[in-house]
């Protein structure tokens, strides 16, 4: 068996999309505590929690040439303790195995959300901007810690080509993150007097970026952008949405109540994204990787609905 690419979080919707592309050319192993219904026959799944010592067996018994780490929990309804344990301890174990067993390429999927929307943000944030999301988004603290763990790993192990990707909002027909859920609502909440520019990336382009990150020689932290940026109002028009505009002082308590009783699919903290800027500069990824998204802005927006 040839050296394998290990994907953590393989059973999620993004992982499944990655497998469909990657297993055509690579031997693929997956690590996930969830089952993978419809798994390709040539893909081997190790159904284990990333925090458990059994994860090391995958690296000890098999030759692993690369790891794509997506095994990060994003469930706002789970406790902070469970999030921290799974995300931080799981990432630490995976990175330790990579160093111990001679893995030559590590790709960690982070997010541009680590910067955080803010009225003080400059128009386009570069990779050296401070990661400020935790000041307003406690749920993002683990993601920031994972990003920082990976960054420290990058500098501590210069012999390993580590790539940390920070894509903008990923949207697609099977994606169930906050941006996709928000844009699927027929009458979404909007904040009166605010129409921020937003950046989106098609799920297939996010997959393509992870595959591209395996390219020999690439190493570093990169913002990954889609086809551009548009006002939120333009996204609504393309999707045929008529937003309900309300004054921002009452928006948070209203959404908090709706979310508590499961009448809304996104937490109230997400309102910052439809009030303040959080746009990133993806020029470094374009320069170093030759990146060009495969989907237009219209295709990317329409992907929310599966069109």
Concise overview:
This protein has 307 residues and is an alpha/beta fold.
Question: What does this protein look like?
Answer:
This protein has a domain at 4-172 and 199-228 and 280-294: 3-Layer(aba) Sandwich (Rossmann fold). It has a seven-stranded parallel sheet, with helices on both faces. Strands 7-9-11 form a three-stranded mixed sheet. It has helices at residues 13-22, 55-61, 80-100, 141-156, 178-184, 203-212, 232-239, 248-260, 283-289, 297-302; strands at residues 4-8, 27-31, 44-46, 64-69, 105-109, 161-167, 169-171, 189-191, 197-202, 220-224, 229-231, 244-246. The longest helix has 21 residues, at 80-100. With 307 residues, it is an alpha/beta fold.
Properties at a glance:
single chain, 12 strands, seven-stranded parallel beta sheet, 10 helices, alpha/beta, 307 residues, three-stranded mixed beta sheet, Rossmann fold
